[in-house]
Amino acid sequence: MSVIRNREIVLLFLSFFLSAAALYAQEPPVDTVAVPLKHGYFSYEGNVYPSVGYTYRVEYDTSAFSCCSKIKYDYPAKVAAGLCGADSGTAVYEFKPRKTGVFEIVEIFGFRGKETNRIRHRVVVKE
Question: Would residue 80 be called left, alpha or beta, if left means φ above 0 and alpha means ψ between -120 and 50 degrees?
Fold first, then answer.
């Protein structure tokens, strides 16, 4: 009897967790950015500190945008010298639209391999 009850509790907890995860994944975009197709570009930036565990990345439709990313280090001379712990900086993702439409770009922040925050943006690319 208790084995059946434990399974029910586990299934109830699992369904609650999956429902909460689905709601979290469906949060609405925080803003809408309008960009012209020709000569239009925009960027997103986030703090990184890889040696400590802080990460930042961006997910986007690769058929809709071309992207160039780089890190602007806070202490570039120390990074060039190979000093440990000097790798704090800002990750910059620059986007150029390839086609018109409505798209989403998601900023993903992490700490030590775990996602800590997700910010969705709606991008409208017009002629």
Answer: alpha
**C-alpha distance across the termini of the chain, in Å:** 66
pLDDT band (50, 70, 90) for residue 20: very low
Query: Residue 87 — very low, low, confident or very high, per pLDDT cuts 50/70/90?
Result: very high
The answer to whether residue 99 is domain-embedded is yes
Residue 81 lies in a domain: yes
Rg (CA), the chain: 20
DSSP SS3 for 76: helix
Q: Is the pLDDT of residue 10 over 90?
A: no
Evaluate whether residue 5 is within a structural domain: no
User: pTM of the predicted model, to two decimals?
Assistant: 0.76
pLDDT of 27 = 74
| Residue 114 belongs to domain with CATH number | 2.60.40.2020
Question: Within 10 Å of residue 14's Cβ, how many Cβ atoms?
Answer: 10
CA 125 to CA 64: how far, in whole Å? 9
Residues 6+ apart with CB under 8 A from 49: 87, 88, 89
